[in-house]
């Protein structure tokens, strides 16, 4: 970055990305002027957002695939499943 006051090259003194934006701070060795530059969205924020979108899409696909299939009604000659109580009574009722 070039100093706006004296035209000399500025040195980068700090780089911050904790807000999700890449902010760089510069200082001029010649005149002591400091300035900052917003370089856009931080890489970690882009990767984080992409991962969230991927996980949401994957969860939606899994939910769609795991939808319970309707069971076929019992055919003639097949008895319906009985409850535990009915099976217990059946054993002692004989």
What does the model show?
By secondary structure, the chain is an alpha+beta fold. β1 and β2 form a beta hairpin. Helix content is 35%, strand content 24%. It has a domain at 10-59. It has a three-stranded antiparallel sheet. The chain is rod-shaped, with a radius of gyration of 34 Å. The protein has two helices and three strands, in the order βββαα.
What's the arrangement of secondary structure elements?
Elements (H helix, E strand, L loop, with lengths): L9 E7 L4 E8 L5 E8 L1 H23 L18 H10 L1
Shape: rod-shaped
> What's the overall average pLDDT, rounded?
84
Major β-sheet profile: 3 strands, antiparallel
Strand order in the sheet with the most strands:
1-2-3
What portion of the residues fall into strands of 2 or more residues?
A: 15-25%
The arrangement of helices and strands along the chain is: EEEHH
SS class: alpha+beta
Residues in helices, as a percent range: 25-40%
> Count of helical segments?
2
Report the uncertain regions.
Answer: none
User: In angstroms, what separates the terminal alpha carbons?
Assistant: 94 Å
- Return Rg in Å: 34 Å
Task: Tell me how many strands there are.
Answer: 3
């Amino acid at each position: 970055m070039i100093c706006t006051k004296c035209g000399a090259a500025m040195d980068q003194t700090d780089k911050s990305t904790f807000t999700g934006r890449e902010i760089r701070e510069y200082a001029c060795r010649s005149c002591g002027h400091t300035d900052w530059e917003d370089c856009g969205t931080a890489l970690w924020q882009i990767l984080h957002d992409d991962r969230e979108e991927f996980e949401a899409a994957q969860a939606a696909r899994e939910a769609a695939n795991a939808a319970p299939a309707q069971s076929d009604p019992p055919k003639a000659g097949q008895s319906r499943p009985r409850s535990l109580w009915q099976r217990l009574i059946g054993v002692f009722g004989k």
